[in-house]
Amino acid sequence: MAESQYHRVVLKLSGEAFADTTTNYGIDAAVVQRIAEEVAEAREGLNVELAIVVGGGNIWRGMSGATRGMDRARADYMGMLATVINALALQDALEHAGVTTRVATAIEMRAVAEPFIRRRAVRHMEKGRVVVFAAGTGNPYFTTDTAAALRAMEMKADVILKGTKVDGIYTADPMLDPNATKFTEISYLKVLERGLKVMDATAISLCMDNKLPIVVFNLRTAGNLRRVIAGEAVGTTVTA
């Protein structure tokens, strides 16, 4: 079996990664299946342990509810439940792609998933299973980006891979500014100082404090996940 650049990785997927590409809402089964196939291909022949943290913005955003007058904590809990829906959809697609998968939730709902227990999750990964983490941190006021950073620390991951719709971090939004230039590497501090929308500030600060690198790459490009895990120069790396 070939060796990857990393031993254990956490892949962060936003809720938008699951959405219909025209409406940017809901779950597109074909899109989820493509993600599952990317994960299956990335693991094939590479000695890597993989966990995935999913968002829920394609179904519900806690902040959106809060800005319309909802109680923020209640709106955030609704968002956490949305991530569980995405996690179950991804689990189904992964298992159809031949990848043994476990869903672990920060909010207990034993009828559909197992509760998050750190040592159990580590054991699943050691046995070659993909673990999908859902329900964020289980607490309101924290994003799934922060959940990804937290789970990566708990799993002792080597890196967080942030799958997006652009091929890295730019000086500005490349879809709006044709003069935006791409970084191949950038420091945590510069991300925070420039206010670049890579992950939220809490997640970046947590990674910086624990010296955990982040690789931002385009998940929609076929084979990119495998290339990143194999150590190819894909996307932008955030380091110290």
Overview of the molecule:
With 240 residues, the chain is of the alpha/beta class. The chain has a single domain (8-239), classed as Acetylglutamate kinase-like (Carbamate kinase). It contains eight helices and eleven strands. The chain has helices spanning 29-43, 62-67, 72-96, 118-126, 144-154, 188-194, 201-209, 224-229; strands at residues 8-13, 49-54, 101-105, 114-115, 130-134, 159-164, 169-170, 182-183, 185-187, 214-218, 236-239. It has a nine-stranded mixed sheet, sandwiched between helices. A two-stranded antiparallel sheet has the order 7-8. Helix 1 links the parallel strand 1 and strand 2. Helix 1 (29-43) packs across helix 3, helix 5 packs parallel to helix 7 and helix 6 runs antiparallel to helix 7 (201-209). It is globular. It starts with 7 loop residues before the first strand and ends with a strand.
Short description:
With 240 residues, the protein is an alpha/beta fold. The protein is 37% helix and 19% strand.
Structural class by helix and strand composition? alpha/beta
Question: How much is the average pLDDT?
Answer: 94
Instruction: Determine and state the CATH class.
Output: Alpha Beta
What kind of sheet is the major sheet?
9 strands, mixed
Question: What is the end-to-end distance?
Answer: 31 Å
Order of helices and strands: EHEHHEEHEHEEEEHHEHE
CATH topology heading: Carbamate kinase
Low-confidence blocks of residues: none
Helix fraction, binned, reads: 25-40%
Architecture, CATH level 2?
A: 3-Layer(aba) Sandwich
If you compute it from the alpha carbons, what radius of gyration comes out, rounded to the nearest whole angstrom?
Answer: 17 Å
